[in-house]
Structure formats: C-alpha cells, structure tokens
Design goal:
205 residues; alpha+beta; two-stranded antiparallel ribbon; 7 helices; elongated
Length: 205
C-alpha cells in the first residue's frame, strides 16, 4: 500500500506510481499552474517577467528581446564582395571557413575565378613546358571538327595505309612535333598516316 501524493488516500502501489489515478495527478498539475508566478528577469533587457511553477520557463519578456538575444548569440559580420563590391552580412563561422577572398554569391565567385585564376595563378597549374602544352592542346583538339577533318585528309593522302610499313593506317601523326611548332598542328602537310604500332614506336623511340 502507498499514500497518494494528491488526495492522501491509500492505494495499491504498482511500480513507481505516486498518484492513485490519472485524475488525481491532473488535479495536482493544475494546482501547480495556478500558484503565484515567480519573478525572473529577461536575459536581454533585464526587466522582470513572470514564470509559473510547472509551466515552461520564459527567458525573454517579448519577441523583440528574443530576436535581440538571438542576434547577440549569432553575431554577423559585414564583408565586401571582391568581385562586385556589394556589402553583405555573413556569420563569423562562414567567414572563418572561407578562403582569402569573399563573395556575395556563387555567380560573383565564378566570375572572379575566371578573371583571376588563369595561367600560372590557376590552382592546378602544372607549368608552361612544351610537353605540357602539347598534351593539353592535343587533348582538347581530339574532339574538334577541324582535327577530325585534318586526320581524314591525312588518311586520304596516304590512301589509308601506314606510310612506314604499309599496314592499314589507324592514327594520324604529326611529322613535326606540336610542341616544336604549334602553327603546324592543323597543317595536312605536317601529317603522316601511321598504324598504331608505328605511332607508339615513334613516340617511345
């Protein structure tokens, strides 16, 4: 047997129950809500506010103080966009996570990168050696219509045969290396039709 904390009568206790019924527990809860409010102070303006026992605790006296308190906890910083010069407000966290430059939008960031991160200032810059230039230009031109037309003309001039061994030609090869003279990269007279084996052997010799 156990004594009810609400009405004081005894009841059969099961588990950790302290009230004899749900109705008795609700009456105790409503009584606590009707008690004299306890005075607390607003966290922003320090004005007294009332908090009822058993109710949800209030930290601010009004919505204005609540928003002011939020701004104090989440301070913002004014920055200037490096591309368009627009002044925008950002949180300190976003500023600390950014690089040396700050932008108001992804559009301005893209424009700035296109204008400034070029050549030796590019993030993936690997140098301006003839070998790198040759590899870069050829990789870009392989899908260009003029490249395909140049290769077709080289094959036609050689009648589809390798000009070194006589086997069927499979690749178009430049007689003079592109890195040596870039002006001849699309000149058919600088082309030579080779089979794949002869082309590989030439570049590895």
């Amino acid at each position: 047997m156990r004594t009810c904390k609400g009405c004081g009568r005894e009841f059969d206790a099961k588990g950790r129950r302290i009230y004899c019924s749900h109705a008795c527990r609700q009456r105790v809860y409503e009584k606590l809500r009707r008690l004299q409010p306890v005075m607390e102070r607003c966290l922003h303006c320090q004005q007294p506010i009332g908090i009822r026992l058993g109710g949800r605790r209030r930290q601010f006296c009004s919505d204005a103080c609540r928003m002011a308190g939020w701004r104090n906890r989440h301070q913002v910083v004014s920055i200037t966009c490096d591309q368009c010069g627009k002044v925008v407000r950002r949180s300190p966290t976003s500023i600390s996570h950014a690089a040396k430059n700050h932008f108001c939008s992804p559009v301005c960031k893209g424009k700035w990168m296109s204008e400034n991160l070029v050549g030796s200032r590019a993030l993936n810059w690997k140098g301006d050696s003839p070998e790198f230039i040759n590899r870069f230009i050829v990789s870009r031109l392989h899908s260009h219509p003029r490249w395909k037309a140049w290769a077709a003309e080289v094959f036609a001039n050689a009648k589809g045969l390798c000009e070194r061994c006589g086997n069927p030609a499979q690749e178009a090869h430049h007689k003079r290396e592109v890195a040596e003279l870039l002006a001849l990269i699309l000149d058919p007279a600088n082309g030579e039709a080779l089979c794949q084996d002869c082309h590989v052997a030439h570049h590895h010799s």
